[in-house]
Amino acid sequence: TRPIITLLTDAVQRGVLREDTGSWEVPEGLDGLMTGVPTSLQQMIDQHIDQLTLDEQKLLEAASVVGKDFNVAAVAAQLEQPTEMIEGQYAALMRRQQVVQENGVSEWPDGTVATRYTFLHDLYHEMLYARVPAGQRVQWHRRIGLRLEQAYGNVTQKYAGELAMHFLRGHDGQRAASYLYAAGEQARLRHAYHEALSHFSKGIEVLNDLPETCQRLQDELQFQISLGAALIVTKGYADPDAEHAYTQAQKLCRQLDLESTPQHIHVLSRLSGIYDNQGHLRRARELGEQCLSLAQCQQDSTHLRQAHQALGRTLLRCGELTAARFHLEQARRFYDPQDDHKLVSSTPRPHLAVPRLTNHYTLGLLLQLQGYPDQAQHWMDQALLQVRALSHPYSQVAVLLWATRLAYHRREVRLVREYAEASIALATENAFTYWLARGRSYHGWALVIEGETDTGLAQICQSLEELQATGITHIGPADLGLLAEAYERTGQIQEGLCVIAKALERANEMGEQFYKAELYRLKGELLLKQSATEVSEARACFYQALDIAGCQEAKSLELRSAMSLCQLEQNQGNRDQAYKLLSEIYHWFTEGFDTVELQEAHALLEADRTD
């Protein structure tokens, strides 16, 4: 105990251990406590160890290679001695209260039963480990790994992290890589994605030191795919490191002549999603079409679904709503309930979010744009209902964010705020940086609409900066449109017009057209607020918005543009043509008459009828 007292005394003197109202605290954490251990203490521990017999020292050094907590059977394996023989030596050390203490009994899956011990302090463990010659360490780690592999039998995956550590330090690269991959998968099952990233990244490092064989390349392919998925979850679809991982996977598919295989289809689908989120929609579309072509040759339902979903998502952003709906409905045809099971079971998972839910919420947004609000809400409600039954945070936060997006397009401010707050809480808890930024942008918009203008606008601006930090090179037109509307609401008209100009330029560069009609409508509203003399230009913007929405068959956006035009013409005393147009669009709708905008349109038409 004396070395520990010395350590604590030194920590108090260095200020890393402080008394606060009768209790002790470590402001800098345990790392601060362990940093700068005095030489005198190290010498004291060395002297303490040197007082033991050589056999006892070797016994403790061997134990340090197993870990701070160790099983006597593992030590026996590395020393190549009978377990019974060394049990007594540890018991004697414990009775003298020297270095170790008993920590129960453990039984391995192969039936081996032995006593567990733990070192009295981390310093003993670390200093004993440092005394073991490097070559001896390698040999002992390898022996321990092989014995544990034998002991764990067919449940080695459960102990993959421990086995990976021993084979890594035992210079058995092939086994280390295998268990690093298994450890990464186990971490993903626990939703410990940052831990998974560490395992997958280390595994790729280990593989790169091995000879370039076909097996090594196949192993790296699996690592790159899993690494990319973990990066998308933690950092977002636009993350450059995720793009690099899947680009490497694509190269490996070519190198291994796997270009016509399901693996390559999966990689192309992921790359399509990455480019879609980065705003490179033309590249995303090319890869989506390539993915679909390969999937059709394979006639595999899982990859046909994945390809149709990827292409449908991109076509939606391109403003080709009819084509997007075709692909999303095709994706539904190929849905397999087993895909959901793969996601939440121990099977290595090809999906980030539950496929069924991804389809539900994407289709929901598309149907809203097309003018089918009730059907849109039905699919989103299904997604919200079904995700509650899953213990899968990534799917949950994705559904919440898409529900937020749908509520935003429906102008349901209270729901936008509620869903955004729920998504922010979940994204914060799980360190999902992309979804966190997304949630904050919509939450900021809701605050602006509800009157908390300064707070809301600041939150939107901050969230857009956070989105760029996730790898989105250029903020998309829809996100800029949200910011422009916030500026319009806060009376910052010139700022809003500058953002709209940037958004329209960005829409042409990226090929993102689905929000272009709304951008022109917002531009018209901003021009009207800027000056009463801007009526002609504002009117032209509203007609431009109507033309774009009409070509895209985006009836909801067409309705919104027609309402803006009607309000303008009403103020100008020239409303007949505009109201006729609004009436035609309104009477096209067959559902959703209780939604905000259809009620507003109805009120406008009723006011015109009674005048």
From TrEMBL:
Q: What is the name listed in the Swiss-Prot or TrEMBL entry for this protein? A: Uncharacterized protein
- Entry annotated with the keyword ATP-binding: yes
Q: Which organism is it from?
A: Candidatus Entotheonella gemina
Q: What molecular functions are annotated in GO for this chain?
A: adenylate cyclase activity; ATP binding
Q: Which UniProt keywords apply?
A: ATP-binding, Nucleotide-binding
Domain of life of the source: Bacteria
GO cellular component terms attached to this protein's record: cytoplasm
Source organism phylogeny = Bacteria, Pseudomonadati, Nitrospinota/Tectimicrobiota group, Candidatus Tectimicrobiota, Candidatus Entotheonellia
Recorded hits in SUPFAM superfamilies, A to Z, give: TPR-like
Cross-referenced InterPro entries: TPR-like_helical_dom_sf
